[in-house]
Every structure is written in C-alpha cells, then in structure tokens.
Amino acid sequence: MKGKEWYQADDIAREYDSKRFSRGGQLIDQREKAAVLDALGPVEDKNILEIACGTGRFTVMLAQQGADIIGLDISRAMMQQGREKARRAGVEDNIEFLRGDAARLPFPDDHFDAVFAMRFFHLADTPTKFLTEMARVSKNQVFFDTFNDQSLRVAYNWLLPMGSHLYSANDVHRLLDNAGLSLVEANHDFVLPFGFYRKIPNGIAQPFRSFDLAVGDSLVGDDVASVSYWNARVPSATDAETRAEEHASDAE
C-alpha cells in the first residue's frame, strides 16, 4: 500500500510511533521536539497551528507547555491517536484536531501566532502552495523541516511507502521567497539518516549519535546533514513598506 492510503490506514496509525520513535528512534523524537521548542520559544497562551500533526507528538507537547493549538491532518486514524494522547496527558481542552487540506487552510489571514509543520514537506506535492498558505494564516512565524538532497537519505529514499521529496538549500530559499517569508535561522542535523537509528537499540544508537554530532559540528556538517530545520518570519507591514521604498530608491 502506497501514498495517502498507507498513511491513513488504522494499523499504520496504531504502530506509527512505536516503529519510528522507539529503540534508536527515541533520539530522533527528542531532537525534533527540541527543535520545535527552540524555534517557537515560550508558547504559553500562544495560538498555534500544526500542519500534518499526525499522532500528536508535537501538538500534545505544546499544549502541555500552555499553548492553544490546532492540529490539522488528512488522517482520521492518526488524529485519533493524538486525541488519546491528549486525553492521557490531560490537555484535550487545549487542542482541537481538525481534518483538512493544508493547501486550503480554513482560517483567516494572520490568525495564528505561529504555524509549523514537521515531517511534512518531504511529502508535499505542491510545496509552494502549502508554504504560502502557512504564511498567510500566521502573524509572525513559520517553522518547518526538510530532508536534504545531498545526504545519505538518498540511498534508501525510493523504498519509502509515501515516497519522499528531497530539497537543496536553494530549493528552500526559493520556497521562502515565493511565500514572502524571511529566513531567521536554519539548523542542520543527522548525518546518519533516520532509518538507521530506527533499526538499532537505543543503547547502541547513543555512540553513533555522538559521532553524528561530531561530524555535524565539523566544517562539512551542514553539507552532509540529512535534515534541516527552517525558522522563518512573516514580514510586517513596516517591512513591506521599507522594501517598497528601497525598490523605489533603486529605480531612481
């Protein structure tokens, strides 16, 4: 089973977290959650939208931090797992799970303090449209990750059930420009791809992660990283006016 049908199957949803974030995958889960928290900063009382929330790993975490959050996904089965997590964590009143299309978000402009998506853009068939919609409904911030086209992920990318779109840095910069977003910060990680960590016990994964981090801190680290985290800002009206004045000045 491939593509959207695979992602929306009940048995896939039930096993999704255990297959990806147990064993060495725990290191992936920890790093991704840290990336989201670092990017969004204090989230208490913030109004946040998560695109492709899946089983609610980040949705529930941010609700526990005091955010009011909507998690949007195409899979009812995945969101049911998220609702159960929210109930167990006692934060169901802070979360709304909504089935919807990320290319046509059912929200007005500038509705959220921040909008983010994890594990989404490698599946996006129209990434410019999705990112533009995320920028439209955000007042301030858009955060997302990508898998990179010059990394070890290339070696097994074709095996993945839903396929995977890999990006270069130039690809992402074009997406940001087309969506009218300004890049604030980019972080790059995981020389060894996610699939490697998921296959080995956590105790064995730790030394490999230490090696991974050492390579990541070297001069070639950013170039060989398999994952990038992109933190972008929605320009304010003042920013737009400044750019217009600069363009007018250049034209004179």
Features:
46% helix, alpha/beta, single chain, 252 residues, 11 helices, seven-stranded mixed β-sheet, Methyltransf_25
Walk me through the structure.
The protein has 252 residues and is an alpha/beta fold. It has one domain: Vaccinia Virus protein VP39 (Rossmann fold), CATH 3.40.50. 46% of the residues lie in helices and 19% in strands. It is built from eleven helices and seven strands. The protein has a seven-stranded mixed beta sheet with strand order 3-2-1-4-5-7-6, with helices on both faces. About 3% of the residues have low confidence.
Rg (C-alpha, Å): 19 Å
The number of helices is 11
Distance between the amino and carboxyl termini: 59 Å
Q: What count of domains describes the coordinates? A: 1
Q: Approximately what portion of the residues adopt beta-strand conformation?
A: 15-25%
Q: What's the CATH superfamily, by name?
A: Vaccinia Virus protein VP39
| Mean residue pLDDT | 90
CATH class: Alpha Beta
Q: What topology, given as strand order, has the largest sheet? A: 3-2-1-4-5-7-6
Largest sheet: 7 strands, mixed
> What is the global morphology?
globular
Total strands: 7
Helix/strand class:
alpha/beta
Report the helical percentage. 40-55%
CATH topology label = Rossmann fold
* Topology order in helix (H) and strand (E) letters: HHHEHEHEEHEHEHHHEH
Spans of at least 5 consecutive residues whose pLDDT stays below 50 are 242-248
CATH architecture designation: 3-Layer(aba) Sandwich
